Amino acid sequence: MSVTTTNYYDRKGILGTLGRDGLLQIILIANTILMLAPIVIMVFSAFKTTPQIFQSPFGIPDFTQVQNFIKIWSETNFLRYLLNSFVVTGASMVLILTLGTMAAYAIGRYAFTGANFILMFFLAGLTLPLKLAIIPLFMLMRDLSILNNQLSLIFVYTAMGLPSTVFIMTGFIRTLPNELEDAARMDGASEARIMWSIMLPLVRPAMVIAGIQNIVPIWNDFFFPLVFIQNDSLKTLPQGLTTFMGEYTTDWGVLFSGLTLSAAPIIIIYIVLSRQFIAGMTSGAIK
Amino acid sequence: MAQLSLRGIKKRFRDTEVLHGIDLEIGDREFVVFVGPSGCGKSTLLRLIAGLDPISDGEFVLNGHRMNDVAPSRRGIAMVFQSYALYPHMDVYENMAFGARLMGLDKPEVERRIAEAAQMLRLEALLKRKPRELSGGQRQRVAIGRALVRKPDVFLLDEPLSNLDAALRSEVRLEIAKLHREIGGTMIYVTHDQVEAMTLADKIVVMNNGRIEQVGSPRELYETPANTFVATFIGSPRMALVDVTRDGDRLVLANGGSILVGNMSGPETLKLGLRPDTVQLVRGASAEGFAGRVEYTEYLGDNAYVYVRLADGKLLSARTAPNDLYAPDEAVTVTVAPGPAHYFSAEDGRRLTP
Asked: Which ipTM value was assigned to this complex?
């Protein structure tokens, strides 16, 4: 090669010193810090008193100071809210995954007229901004007399979660080889057993993706409980936590400890399932 | 005991008919190979026998019982799939136990059958492995084992060797032949590889375009092919078909020489079938034989195949001694060794017996 190109490679820029991978690492580390900072500050603030939060917002607290947590545990309805959130999110997820997987299995594995139309019908749900329909939904819930009832939330969340679940699962179920199904049929398995014993274990990564995709917005949802639930003993966490914000004074320390506790289950679920989640996202690419 | 009768089997997918009336009798303990080019309907026919696809028309009778509407698992048939179709999330033992348990066998019986199959197929050390931890040949054996534990009357094998490399293929081929001797069930084997068909089969069913072209033993198919399709499909390199006209006791190739065949009757124009081993080459031009030019030579060690372009443009292959080398474009004369020759009708390709 020519002398100039050799010189070019000899020159030590930042790229030369660190290499392309080094630069990527720096960007990724910076991104990680940006993403984690709010969560870290939230956890730190949970161990501080309100004056401490304003004096040293980024300071490392004394982690033995747990009076915020004691207060939220004993003096508020936090446990009630947490339980409500678990009930609503849990029931919605069970319904979404059961119904979504069954619908996707039918659409993905059986050839019948209208299969594509049904899939399109589900997909159309992805494009609808559900919140626009809040007034008709409110009237519907009122007429069903499930206002101020957790069923109203569960129904709305299930409807909200089905389109993306059916979309993800149908794509995944379609990629499963037909010969597996044939083999199970030769072995004498019924349709239900083929689905349960052969196909579902293989689509578990997709179910995890659909699950995480849906559980976060449902757990964090503030809007629908605010509209449908008035009874304090039925409130979910995001809605309940707002009661800690007073009109004139807010106990920020208690609020942050409440937020920390409410974020914890989702973060733990995410960490536990992340390996499956990543496996599910990349499995289509490698095959 | 297994006696299969296919009577006028037809299969339609929507408006397209892919099997046009298959009639076939398969006896007990027979090793039958369905062979034919891709898309000839051999795998479809196997799936109809298995019960995985419904039969559009005709009747499938097994041991005197009509099977058209019987569920696949109740036909006493097991199938080994081309991709093996092992359940990826179950280990080898579970793979084999799945079908046996669904048959309603009790636990000791399931265990006994799996132990027996594992011993026969040398799978004992692999029972706790998942399919992804097995090599291709081992997966193949598990797939066969899964069929074995169900103790079926009939085994169906759909191109079981096509996913194996060449060395393993001949090894597993031998194992399958051995297995058939040991368990003695009826086996139906689908392949597009005529070597597999010739080496394994008691009876070969040659199929083309949804029809059976000929049924017979490997020897019958090789020595007396019923038509030009079977003649060119069985045997490698393939038989060359030369268009000739009869002139007295000679067969004449249009401005390319002639050969002496002696007295024969039949039509004036016909196709002469020449296998590589019945063809002899003479260097240079000669009065007796067809003129041609060497196109290229395949050297195989124990012998060589010389491809010769005849005067009418047909390519013909001849087996020669390996040290008998011909230069490309060398002029040669093709003569026919004495022995049974193949004559086919010029119109419909049927075998002629002059």
From this structure: 0.81
